[in-house]
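Quick one: co-fold with coenzyme A.
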Amino acid sequence: MPLKPRSLRVATTADTSLLVRHRRAMWEEMGIGTSASLAEHDALYRRWIRPRLRNGSVVAWVVEDRAGRALASGCLWIQRIHPRPGNPRCLQPYLMSMYTEPDARCRGHARRIVRAAIAHARRLGLPRMALHASDAGRPVYEREGFKPSGEMHLRLPTQRPQR
Ligand SMILES: CC(C)(COP(=O)(O)OP(=O)(O)OC[C@H]1O[C@@H](n2cnc3c(N)ncnc32)[C@H](O)[C@@H]1OP(=O)(O)O)[C@@H](O)C(=O)NCCC(=O)NCCS
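Sure, here it is.
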């Protein structure tokens, strides 16, 4: 049987385990989390993403090779946000969980996913798309026109529960 061409497709709930695995691998490569916190996160993320894939508040894409092996994935979460001028619908597309298998990198798979996500956000008519970039991801997003924003953050030390 002839092999199928490499394809980009929209994920379904049947891809939940793949998306959890890719997100876990993303954190590991970024050096974030311990095995305990990542195991906890995997379970939470699985419960979080499944219903959102079903109701369309998360749209995810998977790049597959000709044999059907997943090479890359990424997710666009349509976040409900506080009112801001020029965004009366209070929705923000947020690109997250971008991951390409190490042996499939630098072949444009992440770029295809970013472009599909931008096209989806445009179709929704939303004025601004956001993401948080890892060092590895930053050049991919910059090439598609993303600019740094002024977001700041403050680490809040965990409080011990009071006796
Ligand atoms: C970031 C990541 C998703 C990129 O995936 P990829 O499929 O290799 O990216 P692409 O091949 O689509 O790259 C698109 C462009 O960015 C460039 N690029 C990709 N990774 C790069 C890197 N680490 N450094 C410099 N340029 C890079 C590519 O060369 C390509 O450039 P071109 O337009 O000149 O051809 C992948 O490296 C990865 O999974 N990293 C670990 C997890 C991670 O950090 N995810 C991002 C979280 S924000």
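If it helps, The longest helix spans residues 35-55.
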